[in-house]
Specification:
single chain, 622 residues, alpha+beta, Calcium-transporting ATPase, cytoplasmic transduction domain A, Rossmann fold, Calcium-transporting ATPase, cytoplasmic domain N, seven-stranded mixed sheet, six-stranded antiparallel sheet, 23 helices, 22 strands, 55% helix, elongated
């Protein structure tokens, strides 16, 4: 019972206030006016407590007059001239609209609470051959953890023994369980459905995708959109203006229009009610929070209302290729060797160098080399990653390089390319060169598979009127082939990290608002340069930290869904703002023409507030 009270006390008090108003109205109708007034005053205190407290605290801390102050003054003014019932109804409906706003906030909080409940508090760790159950906070990177069927996976990691199906729906929004086997990643908070597995922990508890989701949803709730900020800046001066006009209305009409003091005071109280910007203030925040909650439920995380609002205005989207448009798991299709005497030793050396990189191309080359040659232990030193170019290392006092063509002196590349076979093989593929300071020793040709959902996502983006560009570090042939396959508007090949950021700036100059989608460290500068950066959830931490929107699952179909959600939110906010302003103007004009009574003003004003909140709550659906 206490939990229900704690969660819904504002709504409960509003409903009690409404019940007291109904009882008081009965006493008033049957002649017991003294009892009715006492009950109406009780409704004032019960229904108006939270809003009065909120308004007074804001005035005390920020020296800012808010709509809460206007409503309390209007209700007190109504009581002073004998309209206790109207004042009580005003408090009741105002409290009810406030409870609806709180409900929206709570829905957003519930998304976080549901997530937090998913993570186990303990894990079964295997240390020195023995199982022990320890608190999750004591689990370290490298620990082996056993997860039985039906249990939640306690940490991010990789399966090292067993195979199973994993239900990732709570984290990624994917309803169908996914088959997982050795060397595949598993996420904290997901459910191991069918078999016992042993996993190796790869991230600390604070660094897991699960915890990042919670942090992002919490920060998104607190960050205000541009529309909300504008309305809040407008609210203070507007309230002061209304109070000045109300004071003037109490005096001036007596001399200019021949109204009595009672009529002037009454009209001033009606104006205090109908001119209050309650509906206007409630036009943005409930809709924004509802949209953020909706997105989180679908596996789309917005880091704040500002990014959610801006996403609906983008005119173009730039995509990275590897790991974004493509699956990010390329395979080696062929290799052309140069002057290599011992191919097995050569492949083992390449594998030893590429093992130091987490890039999908490096993983593919490593796998190929290990499959083709018996694994030999090759000692490599001074391994260094050159972002956007490749890897360098020292092997037996000799400098080696593995990377793209421009990573090598042009003269030794040309010396290697002795026939047209390379040109034929390179069409539509990624080319990786291997060599030393003197010569190119081999060329690897790799091909990445386009995600099945890419075609659907691109078609949907075109339907939304968005231009689609691909920014990739791959060669011209590969970029051209993929752009034709998925039917996009343009591409830029051979893009280094700083080049991607530069191209995003050019897109912004041409189209204005531009989103960038990526998953790697090399995409971080471009994500930061764009209007809205979108990171794939399985991407690098750098991309996720830099981005404004994170897709928990690498599902491109979520991008048009996110844009549609943003467009719908922006449309609803505009509807709310226009409707609120029209109602306020209509009621103010009607009041000056002496056609709006205080009860009608209360119903019109507070009714419009409830309507805009309910309109915003539509975004919780779907």
């Amino acid at each position: 019972m206490y939990e229900i009270w704690k969660a819904h006390r504002q709504l409960i008090l509003a409903l009690i206030s409404g019940g007291i108003v109904a009882v008081a109205w009965g006493f008033d109708a049957y002649g017991s006016k003294e009892i009715a007034v006492v009950l109406f005053i009780g409704a004032y205190f019960i229904g108006g407590y939270y809003k009065a407290k909120e308004g007074l605290e804001e005035f005390k801390e920020e020296k800012k007059l808010s709509v809460e102050v206007l409503m309390i003054l209007a209700a007190l003014g109504a009581g002073m001239i004998g309209y206790w019932m109207e004042g009580a109804i005003l408090i009741f409906i105002f409290a009810l609209s406030g409870a609806l706003e709180t409900y929206t906030m709570n829905k957003s909080e519930q998304e976080i609470s549901k997530l937090m409940e998913l993570q186990p508090e303990e894990a079964t760790v295997i240390r020195e051959g023995r199982e022990s159950v320890i608190p999750l906070s004591e689990v370290m990177i490298g620990d082996h953890v056993r997860v039985r069927a039906g249990e939640r996976i306690p940490a991010d990691g990789v399966i090292i023994h067993g195979e199973t199906t994993v239900d990732e729906s709570a984290i990624t929004g994917e309803s169908i369980p996914i088959e997982k086997s050795i060397n595949q990643n598993v996420l904290s908070g997901t459910v191991n459905s069918t078999s016992t597995i042993t996993m190796k922990v790869t991230k600390n508890n604070e660094e897991t995708l699960f915890n990042k989701i919670i942090e992002m949803v919490q920060s998104a709730k607190e960050e205000k959109s541009p529309s909300q900020q504008t309305i809040e800046r407008f609210e203070g001066p507007y309230v002061k203006t209304v109070l000045v006009v109300v004071a003037m209305l109490m005096i001036i009409p007596q001399y200019l229009l021949g109204w009595s003091f009672e009529e002037s005071f009454y009209r001033a109280m009606v104006l205090l009610v109908v001119a209050s910007p309650c509906a206007l203030v409630a036009s943005v925040m409930p809709a924004t929070l509802a949209a953020i909650s909706n997105g989180a439920r679908q596996g789309i995380l917005f880091k704040g209302g500002v990014h959610l609002e801006q996403l609906g205005t983008v005119q173009a989207v730039g995509f990275d290729k590897t790991g974004t448009i493509t699956s990010g798991t390329p395979i080696v299709t062929s290799v052309v060797f140069g002057q290599v005497e011992d191919i097995a030793t050569f492949l083992a050396t390449v594998a030893a160098i590429e093992k130091h990189s987490q890039h999908p191309l490096a993983n593919a080359i490593t796998s190929y080399c290990e499959e083709q040659a018996s694994v030999k232990r090759i000692d490599v030193e001074k391994v260094h990653t050159h972002s956007g170019w490749g890897m360098s290392a020292k092997v037996k006092e000799q400098d080696w390089k593995v990377g793209k063509r421009g990573f090598f002196p042009e003269e030794i590349v040309q010396a290697f390319e002795y026939d047209k076979e390379l040109d034929m093989l390179a069409k539509g593929k990624t080319v990786v060169y291997v060599g030393n300071e003197a010569e190119v020793l081999a060329v690897f040709f790799l091909e990445d598979t386009i995600r099945k959902v890419a075609h659907e996502a691109m078609a949907e983006l075109k339907r939304l009127g968005v231009q689609i560009w691909m920014l990739t570090g791959d060669n011209e042939y590969t970029a051209q082939s993929i752009s034709k396959t998925i039917n996009i508007d343009g591409y830029v090949a051979n893009c280094l990290p700083e080049g991607k950021a530069r191209e995003v700036k050019k897109l912004r100059e041409e189209f204005g608002q531009v989103a960038m989608v990526g998953d790697g460290i090399n995409d971080a500068p471009a994500l930061a340069t764009s209007t809205v950066g979108i990171a794939m959830g399985a991407g690098t931490d750098a991309a996720i930290e830099t981005a404004d929107v994170v897709l928990i699952k690498n599902n491109l179909a979520k991008i048009p869904k996110a844009i549609s959600l943003s467009k719908k939110m922006n449309r609803i906010i505009k509807q709310n703002i226009i409707f609120s302003i029209i109602v306020i103007i209509f009621l103010i004009v009607g009041n000056f023409m002496q056609q709006v009574s205080l009860p009608l003003g209360v119903i019109g004003h507070e009714g419009s507030t409830i309507l805009v909140i309910l309109n915003g709550l539509r975004l919780l659906r779907g």
